[in-house]
Structure formats: C-alpha cells, structure tokens
Amino acid sequence: MARLTLSGLTKSFGGLDVVKAVDLEVTDGELVCLLGPSGSGKSTILRMIGGFEGPSGGAIRIDGEDVTAVPPERRPTGMVFQSHALWSHMDVFANIAFGLKLRHLPRAEIRSKVEAVLELVGLAGYGSRRVWQLSGGQQQRVAIARSLVLEPKILLLDEPFASLDQHLRERLREEVRDIQQRLGITTLFVTHGQDEALALADRIVVLKDGAIEQTDRPSALYRRPATRFVAGFIGHMNLVPTEFRAGRSTRPEFALAAEVSDGPAEIAFRPEATGVRPAQGAGHAVVYRVTDFGTHLTLDLDLEDGTRIKAHGAGSIAWSPGQRVEVTPAEVLLYRDGVLLSTEPRTAAAAA
Ligand SMILES: Nc1ncnc2c1ncn2[C@@H]1O[C@H](COP(=O)(O)OP(=O)(O)OP(=O)(O)O)[C@@H](O)[C@H]1O
Question: Which residue is closest in CA terms to ligand 1's atom 8?
C-alpha cells in the first residue's frame, strides 16, 4: 500500500505549459482516474510519475519520499501503456518473467510469482503461448501481469484498453477493478472516457488544458460539477442561458428564483432529471427528435429562443417531432462565468 503526492507538478514543452502546477494526493489503495479531452496532459502527468518524463517544476512523493529525480527502473511504480509493447518473439512466461530475471531472483521464485500473477489476470496455463497467439484482450492482461509481477507500490495505467472493442473494454475494466481491490494497490488510470472513469474510480480528476478543473467522487462530480466544462464533460448537461433580475430568472418557461446578483447565468439540468409532458396549451418547447435507446427515450427539444435541450421521455407516450411539450427541470444548478454558483435555485411554485 502506498500514498502518492503530487505538488505543483508542472511540465513545459518549448515554453508551453502542458501540465500546470498540479496538486494531488492519492491515498493508500485508492483508484484515481485522470479524465480529460485529448491534449489535456493526462499522459504527461502519468509519464512524470513513472519517471519517463522529467517535470519542469514541482515534486512527486511516494509514501513521503521524494522520487522526482529517481530513474523509472528504480521507482516503485509499474506502468501499463495503451500499446502494450510485449516482446512477440518470447512466450507469455518469458515476457512476464523478464523484470524478475533482471532482479536476479531464483528460478523457482520467478516461476511461482509468474504463475500467481497469471492466475490473478485469468491466464493460468497460458505461460507457454506466444504473444501473437493471444487476442488483444489477453495481450493487455499479459501487459498488466508484467507490471504487477514486480509488485509496484503504485500502478499506472495509460488508456490500457483504448484499442479494444466496447464489450471487452467493459469486461477488462471490471477485472482491473477486482484485481486492484484484491491487491489494495494504489492506482492511477488515464482515460478520456467518462463512462470508464465513472465505472472504475474512487475519485476522478478532471483535467483541462493541463490544469485540474475538479477532483471528486464520481457521484459528487456528476451531481455538482464545479464548472461548466465538467458539467458538459460528465454525461450530458442542458445549459440554458438566462438573466437574473431581482432574484428571478427572466425566462418565462422556467420561472426560477435564486439569491444571486443581477446578471447573466446559465440554468443547468440533466436530461434524466427533466420532466416532459405533452402540452395542454402552447407549451414551452417543440420536439425536434426522438431517439429510442432501448433503456430510455431521449427527446431533443427546442425552446422558444432556439436553445436545444435533451430530456428523457416516458416510453408510454407516443412522442413525435413537431409536438408541443411542457418541460419541468429538476435538480437545477446555476453557472455564471463558467463556474457553479453555490445558490440553489427554487422553482416558481416553491418561490411563489
Ligand atoms: N514530447 C513532447 N513534445 C512536445 N509536446 C508534447 C510532448 N508530449 C506531449 N506534448 C504535448 O503536451 C500536451 C499534452 O499531451 P498529453 O499526451 O499529456 O495529453 P493527453 O491528455 O494524454 O492526451 P491524449 O488523450 O490524446 O493522449 C499536448 O498538447 C501534446 O501535444
């Protein structure tokens, strides 16, 4: 078990800061996902922790010990890359045993460690297979086994399943979670998939342009995204522009009251927390598109001013494009200048 501490971690390439003063504490046995769009600095942070990239500033500590200047092979970290870089001319056993041989462990000990780790990743009996005889998923399991066999204190995974199909990816991430919890190994997992992060992580770090936007548990991140960016990155968030005057939204269709100063704001609410029903009178919105996802129906709706929002519609109603509807958002948040306002808005009925 180990604790990882990043303080003021910074990296510049050619004068451009791609990682900007990142502070993060990962506790014993925790699995933290680094989530962000392409180019947000996720891999660079992971590579710095693994020692494959030298920081331009800041420090990396593992269990309190400064490892910032320690070369990768002497760090207590194990890294798994997207392209697993297995040696195709060696069999599975030799691939996994390689690092142990470099450490001059006795043969019997190497054998028992490799067999144990093959068992752990669900590949018992595969030791004599050639790498090219394995499926993509099996190869990635070998790559994980090759890291784990060295018993790192910290496991670093850089989009390890990105090249695999959806089903396999889901299965492997469940396996990784099981293994990680069984070993209690502190883990950092890089992904640009929000589903993957939500499914795997104890906590998620959302990165944008090399800086942390928010660090939180999946449920908290989903319920109260600290910024507009996070709101739009984790699931779908409807964002409807409005103006507040004397504590009331000027949008007639969502009459909201909130203790905010006058000025513009965005009303934010999730499609799954939005009530929709066929309009009795003129309604607030018009159905643009109906999409049946099997588990639920998603309605794309156009508000009077042309703002398009999404809502989940009841399967028992025959929705059709052009239909006029009434919309009742619930669990509403407010953003101003891209940042969550702490004020909880009340709906018109509650405010009246
Ligand atoms: N060796 C390098 N030299 C110059 N620029 C680099 C180097 N490595 C990364 N960068 C730049 O740093 C930024 C962050 O890259 P990084 O790979 O960390 O992002 P990422 O969030 O992991 O993206 P992706 O999801 O696409 O892998 C990018 O703009 C990238 O072009």
Answer: 44
Contact 88, 148 (CB under 8 A): no
The CA-atom distances, in angstroms, between 145 and each of 96, 138, 218 are: 7, 10, 27
| Dihedral over alpha carbons 302, 307, 309, 313 (to 10 degrees) | -20
Q: Single out the residue in 167, 195, 224 at which a domain terminates.
A: 224
Q: Which atom of ligand 1 is nearest to the CA of 43?
A: 22
Measured CA to CA, the distance from residue 70 to residue 280 in angstroms comes to 69
pTM for this prediction: 0.90
Ligand 1 lined by 193 (C-beta under 6 Å): no
Show the tokens assigned to 327: 């919309």
Rounded CA-CA distance 271/231 in Å is 12
Q: Specify the CATH number for the domain of residue 327.
A: 2.40.50.140
Chain centre distance of CA 75: 26
How confident is the model over 242-256, as pLDDT tens digits? 999 999 999 888 889
The predicted complex's ipTM stands at: 0.95
| In-domain check, residue 231 | no
Report the atom number in ligand 1 closest to the C-alpha of 210.
Answer: 14
- Å from CA of 12 to ligand 1 middle: 10
Same-domain status, 97 and 213: yes
User: Measured from the CB, is residue 44 less than 6 Å from ligand 1?
Assistant: yes
Residue 230 lies in a domain: no
* Domain span including residue 121: 4-224
Q: Whose CA is nearest to atom 5 of ligand 1?
A: 13
**Residues 187, 211 within the same domain:** yes
Instruction: Give the pLDDT confidence of 193-232 residue by residue, as tens digits.
Output: 898 999 999 999 999 999 999 999 999 999 999 999 999 8
Q: pLDDT tens, 296-339? A: 899 999 999 999 999 999 888 899 999 999 999 988 999 999 99
The string of pLDDT tens digits covering residues 327-351 is 999 889 999 999 999 888 887 554 4
CB 230 within 8 A of CB 220: no
Residue bearing the CA closest to ligand 1, atom 30: 39
The residue behind tokens 């500590």 is 61
